[in-house]
Write a structure and sequence with these properties.
Chain lengths: ~250, ~400
């Protein structure tokens, strides 16, 4: 069984976000990139499947800051092939372009199962999984939180709002959008990652020119703006409570 | 019966990986080879605060190692009850480095085998990525100092030599409760006119608790980062807020080639007591008891300096708890304990900090004075949750000094 896990790197929200001078993008000067949390779960799920039933696991990610850390960590978890994709991932790159561009690299790996995070905080034009499934002509199930493999098929656990869970059987090859791996992504000791850096090799694939069509264009990016109907009460606790009491009296609830 | 030689202890473990584990324990700490001299007296397991909950407390661990059954240990998780309090090491008649050598090496094996409680994994992953176990923004490491006058010098900004480099530490930098200790210490240093600077965003976790939780590689990574930063700046000595940072920089960093004179702030302030005493004008009229932090007291022999500072505060009457000096009880935060509260609660249904707070109440003190940033929040939580400990106030020595400065 060939499993491919595809990941994106997204801004690490440990820092407060700022908008850049043009007002259409984030100021990336001080932001670090981090693996999209759901993609981290997709990698964990791939490793769990390998541990359970044997598989060849390939991990693919864009060649930008932080990619090697993610790949070597995945190798220490048990991934077999590490591939970084060179291409245009900065600036206007969108999920449509990314999905189209990785299609040939993915086909070459002849995957039975493609796992990717169900969403990312940089998804502006839909999430990656369904787009990949469309360009590869494979079925897709998203919001998956459990995967079992049985004779050329997988049975997925898909979560619905309101606490409903469905088990779905899907023919392979297929694309799954992982919401949560069956166990949280494991911690890998630094010594093990350092060892992987010495022994594992990272392959490189160059992606085709990006075709941005289908994506969205950002006209204006801005922080939430205070509406005019809300009155922000400022001052000391005492001043605030006094003003609150007045308001309650004004509107007749006191 | 074969004669008991070094070889036979070692040969007790015939499996390859047991031998390498044995070697690891030997190499992990100075005097590691003392392990061969275990008398199986059981003192270590008896004094261990959570020994009664461990499947293999220290003496049994050694027995398992000798009996070639170390693989059994790897199947258990109760070694994670060890809070690296150093009590076992302090009482061992054969002077075996149990805490640094044995317990830490076992945790390391468990960690490499992936047998790690989830809470601890989060703290380790945060330390790896952000340089602090809480997962806070490294850019905000010096935010606690905003508004302090005279302004706290951040080495990367002022680009000038200082006399004292203050290694602030993780909890003193970010924890909202502990930040008040940090500000208090800044006030004391300013009152003394000390020429000091901090590293701010350049500072990473000292890594000592991560090391004692078995993540040696992470410790080395953090130490190397700090070592590089130290070498960029000019200063005469380092002082630390945190006894764990003090322990790391004093005893562990030199083994990685990073050597600087370092003092815990209580040591440093006692050296300046003549200057400090006349400034302590305001009375703190209270019975005060002092909790010896494991990594200041037992591990590094600093018992008198913190007490001397407390006694210099007018109005303070110092009383001792039943367990004091080398016999002090651990607050439960060391060796990864800070990040294992849920795991340990599930096994113990009691917190070490509860025991300690009860002792403080019994001593008749109204203030429990501490000198380690793990302790204020831990003891305050215990005070909140224990009936009858209501009026007890927990304060860092730096806070009491700052109060007395007025
Ligand atoms: S206290 Fe020392 S000598 Fe006694 S059992 Fe423990 S390790 Fe062995
Ligand atoms: S260091 Fe403390 S908690 Fe750990 S085994 Fe020794 S006595 Fe027990």
């Amino acid at each position: 069984m060939n499993i491919v896990a595809l990941f994106k790197l997204v801004p690490d929200l440990v820092e407060e976000l700022e908008i850049d001078g043009n007002g259409t993008a984030l100021n990336m000067d001080f932001l670090r990139l981090i693996i999209n949390e759901f993609d981290d779960h997709a990698i964990e799920q791939a490793i769990l499947l390998k541990e359970r039933g044997g598989a060849q696991v390939s991990i693919l990610g864009p060649d930008i800051e932080g990619v090697e850390d993610v790949l070597y960590t995945a190798a220490s978890k048990g991934a077999d092939r590490l591939i970084k994709l060179t291409g245009d991932f900065q600036g206007k790159a969108n999920n449509h372009a990314m999905a189209r561009a990785v299609t040939s690299a993915l086909k070459e790996l002849q995957p039975d199962l493609i796992l990717t995070g169900v969403q990312a905080n940089t998804d502006l034009d839909g999430s990656l999984g369904p787009l990949l499934a469309e360009y590869l002509d494979m079925p897709y199930v998203g919001y998956v939180s459990g995967v079992k493999v049985a004779d050329g098929k997988v049975i997925t656990r898909k979560e619905y709002p309101g606490g409903l869970v469905a088990e779905m059987e899907i023919k392979l090859p297929a694309v799954l959008g992982i919401q949560a791996a069956e166990q949280p992504p494991r911690y890998i000791a630094v010594a093990k990652v350092r060892q992987a850096m010495k022994t594992a090799t990272i392959e490189v694939r160059t992606l085709a020119e990006s075709d941005l069509s289908g994506g969205s264009t950002i006209r204006r990016m801005f922080k939430p703006e205070a509406g005019t109907r809300a009155e922000m009460i400022e001052g000391s606790a005492e001043e605030v409570t006094t003003r609150l009491l007045d308001i309650f009296k004004e509107i007749g609830v006191l | 019966m074969p004669q008991m030689t070094d070889e036979s202890v070692r040969a007790g473990s015939t499996r390859e990986d047991d031998i390498s584990f044995y070697e690891k324990v030997l190499a992990a700490a100075p005097n590691g080879e003392q392990l061969r001299l275990c008398l199986e007296c059981g003192n270590c397991s008896g004094i261990c605060p959570f020994g009664y909950l461990m499947t293999y407390p220290p003496s049994r661990l050694i027995a398992m190692l000798r009996a070639d059954r170390f693989n059994k240990v790897l199947e258990t998780d109760t070694v994670w009850m060890c809070v690296s309090c150093y009590a076992c090491t302090a009482v061992c008649p054969s002077k075996i480095p149990l805490t640094f050598g044995l317990m830490t090496s076992v945790k390391e094996e468990l960690l490499l085998a992936g047998n790690v409680p989830a809470e601890l994994q989060t703290a380790l992953a945060n330390s790896q990525r952000y340089g602090n176990p809480q997962g806070e923004s490294p850019r905000k490491r010096a935010d606690w100092a905003n508004g302090i006058q005279p302004e706290v010098k951040i080495m990367g900004k002022v680009k000038q030599p200082v006399d004292v480099l203050w290694f602030v530490g993780d909890y003193p930098s970010y924890h909202p409760r502990v930040q008040s200790t940090t500000k208090a210490l800044a006030k004391v240093l300013n009152a003394l006119g000390v020429d000091f600077g901090i590293l701010g965003p350049d500072e990473s976790s000292d890594g000592d608790s991560q090391r004692l939780a078995g993540e040696r590689g992470l410790f080395e990574m953090l130490a190397e980062k700090n070592g590089k930063v130290f070498s960029k700046y000019q200063f005469n000595r380092i002082i630390t807020t945190d006894p764990h940072a003090y322990n790391a920089i004093k005893n562990e960093y030199p083994r990685l080639g990073i050597s600087y004179p370092v003092q815990h702030f209580t040591e440093y302030l006692v050296e300046h007591l003549e200057q400090l005493t006349p400034l302590l004008k305001h009375e703190v009229k209270a019975k005060v008891t002092y909790h010896d932090p494991c990594y200041l007291g037992r591990a590094n022999g600093i018992f008198d300096q913190p007490r001397a500072l407390l006694e210099a505060i007018p109005g303070v009457e110092l009383v001792e708890m039943a367990h004091n000096h080398a016999n002090s009880l651990c607050c439960g935060g060391g060796g990864g304990g800070m990040w294992l509260d849920g795991f340990q609660w599930e096994k113990a249904h009691v917190r070490m900090s509860d025991w300690r707070v009860r002792e403080a109440v019994t001593s008749g003190a109204s203030i429990l004075a501490v000198a380690c940033p793990y302790e204020t929040p831990r003891f305050e939580d215990a005070v909140k949750s224990l009936n009858g400990s209501g009026p007890l106030i927990v304060k860092d020595i730096a806070e009491l000094l700052a109060e007395s400065l007025g």
